[in-house]
Amino acid sequence: MSKPISKKPALRRFHQASWDEPIIFELSQLGQRGVLIPEVGENIRQEVGEVAASLPDSIRRKTPPMLPEMSQLHVLRHFARLSQENLGVDLNIDVGQGTCTMKYSPKINDQLARSSKMADLHPLQDESTVQGILEIMYRLEQMLKEISGMERFSLQPGAGSAAIYANVAMIRAYHAAREESNQRDEVVTTIFSHPSNAACARTAGYKVITLYPNEDGYPDPNALKAAVTERTAALMITNPEDTGIFNPKIEEFVRVVHDAGGLCCYDQANANGILGITRAREAGFDLCHFNLHKTFSTPHGCGGPGAGASGVTNDLTPFLPKPTVEFDGQKYYLDHERPQSIGKIRPFYGVAQNLLKAYAWVMSLGADGLREVAEVAVLNNNYLLKKVLEIRGVSAPYAKGKRRIEQVRYSWERLSNDTGVHSEEIGYRAADFGIHYWTSHHPYVVPEPMTLEPSESYSKADLDEYVAILKNIAEEAYSNPEIVKTAPHNSTVHQIEHESFDNPDEWAVTWRAYLRKVLKK
Amino acid sequence: MKEKGTIYPYIPNSVPAVKAEMLKAVGAATIDELYADIPENIRLKRSLNLPKPLLSESELARHVEGLLEKNKSTRQNLSFLGAGCWQHQVPAICDEINSRGEFLTAYAGEPYEDHGRFQALFEYESMMGELLNMDVVNVPNYDGFQAAATALRMAARITGRSRVLVAASTGADKLSMIRNYLKPDIHVELVPYEPTLGLMDLAALKTKILEQDAAVFFENPSYLGFIETQADRIAAIAHAHGALCVVSVDPISLGVINPPVEYGGDIACGDIQPLGIHMLYGGGHGGFIATKDEQRFVMEYPSRLFGVATTVVEGEYGFGDVAYERTSFASRELGKEWVGTAAALWGISAGVYLALMGPQGMVEIGEGIMQRVRYAMKKIVNIPGIKIPFEETHHFKEFAVNFDSTGKPVAVINQALLAQGIFGGKDLSGEFPELGQSALFSITEVHTQADIDRLVATLEEVVR
């Protein structure tokens, strides 16, 4: 070696994997098999003959499904390549999906959950054969009770939105039991609460009233007072909100709603910065929910399975989904005898393997560790806020001069006005540097939004790198906007032509639809 | 208040010097200053009361494995449990792919940095589309219960009607979910089943159906395991009254049983757990909904629908959300129902499964399961005192077994089987009291003739 290898440049020279992989049907080779099925055996075959053939004509399938035919290695290789064309927490500095708490999901917990004594359990096994998983669920419930101050939890919801839905269903059952369901037909939420609060309430039959914040971005008690009446069934509110602003008047909100006879439901999807700091109980709430795949580290799985947990006070306990997990001092069991229960919101009892992972995560941290999670998540966020605001063209609307909890909704409005570059486009360009970036939920109340949540998992160096990338893109927007507007350049694919997605004549949700509509086959 | 200044492996900035440097950068003396907006009187003034942490991996593993050791799995025993969650062969490649960190730890990336999950889920939709002969399939929702409940809400919106007719052979839990989810605006009316065959009572259906009905819903195969062979007639009756035909199917049956669209089904739904996903004590569920590619159907899906499109470069496949404005992500309460984190990873796994199985695999598995079930039914019905309700009806992978004449309740029989290392069928006496002391036995491709013979021999002993 004639000279030393140069230092790495300030910005990573990234290129996403780009295998140029065909659609799986194009890989099909006639007659190939990927996996074989256990033979039924000669005896059975002789005894019963061909069975499916005896089905009536209208119900018997005559043409096998047109699935691809592939050898095992070729299936593996195809999906392994697709996986490489994906970034998760394991690969990127995943602070760009604010509100979703993209933290590290410890591998030891995944490993434990892969045990055959977890994976190969049938949910209807005799209770004596599932004491271990029932104990884990029971213990996790005790932990969540302590973390929130609520009196009971259901671990049945499949994830956060399902937990919100379960909570609305319990609210409805509570008012019905008091014969007030006709009178109470409105749910109040805020625009910076997760959209599922509004959408689940609407699905459950409620009229939704959405409050907007005051000029400084804080939830406005006067707006609440104007909205709350004897028609109010519940307040469903995220705190801290999706702006990372904690509602300092949350007790007053609760009081106003309670005074009118409504219930208060605390969306704790954003709890990562307040573990051990403040709880639903002290704020006076009747119901709350956690997303175990966010705050409690279970992996996000490309969009599930996650796990949700709905917590309630004693007054709402009779309405919990059934069954609940109980302990009689000697054994754990499922209690199905709950006459006022809203019933099932999912088959069986919840996403059990993720309940195990969440339990293991709390066990690996304890009370001090959870508080450390919260404090570092908040420190990381305020550090990131400080650094991001040094970038040209970006601002953090609202709460001027105040601190944020675990995330911030920023605005690129100034940069967009100056350069014509939009927030989405900054996100596409961010992909060129190996990071994910998300704007925000709709509607864009904050213009040209960007929502960053750095959780506790990322190092100071990670945050500095993320900021350096954003700064670089902002500078490009001012000096060479075309490079941003035509991004991505180093990703798996280039700019997608979106128009067909909203055109019924052209959209194609399956390969067969594409062949029929576009290739006219 | 920290015990001993632990540096947590999951929290890089728990190093005190780093914290101090960052605090300085943000101009705060303490972390507590960052919580200034949280009023004092709602602060927790003590430490959380949680178990002492197990800080090392070996301590944690010993503890969790100790708990798991109390479980006895279906692999250590011989299980005939089904009733909505089934023991099937799970190819190693399914686990290999869904364990990859790139998929396991990703979430909501754009179709650029996460092209892979978009393509994998588009391929899942596409392979499910082949299984179902439908052009539109959603990115998985939570589970088959939610899929059924949403399919019925979709039917109500499509038809503008407010009552649904549901087969009374539907399992109690799914029915509970449907009833709850359709409240308060859609009424659920049950259609009885014919007592000897289990099939829908068509005379009752004709009497009950009204012009206000949005849908007729049934399962095929049913919760009780039989195949609804009159499906085409049910669909015709529904259509004659302007209602849609909504059918919940077991996707693993579709190599041998016609998908709903072939007999008049308008919306198909179900659960993908059988397709390469472990039972996981009920954690392996994912829901699907499939329809024809008509705007009036597509615009009523609450779920994500990933579509394929061109990019600016020739020969590249791009992906994205079809008709995104319908979702609650885009339109809050003005969207269709709601959407959230559901079961995408299981969609990817099911896609891997279907690619491994291919057309021949799906035909073989369906035929093999039906042969085993026919064999088991023939043997079991010969045991003195045991009857098989709906014996004359075609069954797929489950069947009810009645013990009334043995004088022993299912609970007693199942305890006796358990003592022999056999997990007996699901006790149906609570949800179908009209079937007396009956249990639902499930048999799949994992069961050998020896397994079935062992069940038969043990049952013979137990009921004697």
List keywords for this structure.
heterodimer, A: 521 residues, alpha/beta, Aspartate Aminotransferase, domain 2, Aspartate Aminotransferase, domain 1, 4 domains, 7-stranded mixed beta sheet, two-stranded antiparallel ribbon, 16 helices, globular, B: 464 residues, 3 domains, 14 strands
Annotate the secondary structure layout.
The complex is a heterodimer of chains A (521) and B (464).
Chain A: H1 42-48, H2 72-84, H3 107-113, H4 116-119, H5 131-148, E1 152-154, H6 160-177, E2 186-190, H7 195-203, E3 207-211, H8 221-227, E4 232-238, H9 250-259, E5 263-267, H10 280-283, E6 287-291, E7 308-312, E8 324-327, E9 332-335, H11 352-388, E10 408-411, H12 413-419, H13 423-431, E11 449-452, H14 460-479, H15 481-485, H16 511-517
Parallel strand pairs in A: 2-3, 2-4, 4-5, 5-6
Antiparallel strand pairs in A: 1-7, 6-7, 8-9, 10-11
Chain B: H1 16-26, H2 57-68, E1 78-79, H3 92-98, H4 101-104, H5 115-132, E2 136-137, H6 144-159, E3 163-167, H7 172-182, E4 187-191, H8 202-208, E5 213-220, H9 231-240, E6 244-249, E7 267-271, E8 287-291, H10 295-298, E9 306-310, E10 317-321, H11 328-331, H12 344-380, E11 398-402, H13 410-419, E12 422-423, E13 426-427, E14 438-442, H14 449-463
Parallel strand pairs in B: 1-12, 3-4, 3-5, 5-6, 6-7
Antiparallel strand pairs in B: 2-8, 7-8, 9-10, 11-14, 13-14
Helix pairs in contact in B: 3-12, 5-12, 6-7, 12-14
CATH class of the largest domain in chain B: Alpha Beta
| Percent of residues in β-strands of chain B | 5-15%
**Shape descriptor of chain A:** globular
Q: What is the architecture of the largest domain in chain A at the second tier of CATH?
A: 3-Layer(aba) Sandwich
Q: Which structural class should the secondary elements of chain A be placed in? A: alpha/beta
How are strands sequenced across the largest beta sheet of chain B?
Answer: 2-8-7-6-5-3-4
| Lateral arrangement of strands in the main beta sheet of chain A | 1-7-6-5-4-2-3
Main sheet summary of chain B: 7 strands, mixed
**Which regions of chain B contain 5 or more consecutive residues with pLDDT less than 50?**
none
Main β-sheet description of chain A:
7 strands, mixed
**CATH fold group of the largest domain in chain A:** Aspartate Aminotransferase, domain 2
Using only C-alpha atoms, the radius of gyration of chain B works out to 26 Å
Under CATH at level 1, the class of the largest domain in chain A stands as Alpha Beta
Counted beta strands of chain A = 11
What is the 3D form of chain B? globular
| Residues in β-strands, percent of chain A | 5-15%
CATH superfamily placement of the largest domain in chain B:
Type I PLP-dependent aspartate aminotransferase-like (Major domain)
